[in-house]
Amino acid sequence: MQEDRIAHYRETQIKTASQGKLVVILYDGLLRFLDLALENLPKKKYDLVNNNIIRAQDILSELSMSLNMEAGDISQRLLSIYSFLNMKLIEGNVQKSEDQIRFVRRMVSELRESWNKIAKKSSITPIEEMKKGGIDVAG
């Protein structure tokens, strides 16, 4: 019952979020999966470490695919950052390196804070954005 309420809350949060807030939500999920990987690394629960890193990589892929490459240089830079972070996660996963995963977490945390500042300045919801002609995460 509690899980249903949480799922409903998250669904409502996503449906009513602005474009910038959606990116922040993705970063929050990315940080959560990195934290779970880091939590399980010292316990040598490598299956959980691997699964959570893969989930983090999935979010990085989603962020990459959502970039509007026609928006200019910033999108290309973000794509390069996301690719770099993904490579670090691959290395961290293969080597079971806490340092690599922590490095990615620090970078993602900084990106999240930047996006959060942007999201607070822009309160246009996805529905309003669609009325204007579509949603593109330009960076």
Question: Helices and strands in order, then pairings?
Answer:
Elements: H1 2-16, H2 19-40, H3 46-65, H4 73-95, H5 98-121, H6 126-132
Keywords:
single chain, about 140 residues, mainly alpha, Four Helix Bundle (Hemerythrin (Met), subunit A), about 80% helix, globular, disordered C terminus
Cα shape: globular
Reported by name, the CATH topology of the domain at 27-121 is Four Helix Bundle (Hemerythrin (Met), subunit A)
Q: What kind of assembly state do the chains in view correspond to? A: single chain
CATH class of the domain at 27-121: Mainly Alpha
Largest sheet: none
**CATH superfamily name of the domain at 27-121?**
Flagellar protein FliS
Low-confidence stretches: 125-139
Percentage beta strand: under 5%
Q: Write the CATH architecture name of the domain at 27-121.
A: Up-down Bundle
SSE topology string? HHHHHH
Q: With helices defined by DSSP (H or I, 4 residues minimum), what is the helix count?
A: 6
What helical percentage do the residues reach? Answer: over 70%
- Using DSSP, what is the number of strands? 0
Mean pLDDT: 84
Rg, rounded, reads: 16 Å
Q: Which class of secondary structure composition applies to the elements?
A: mainly alpha
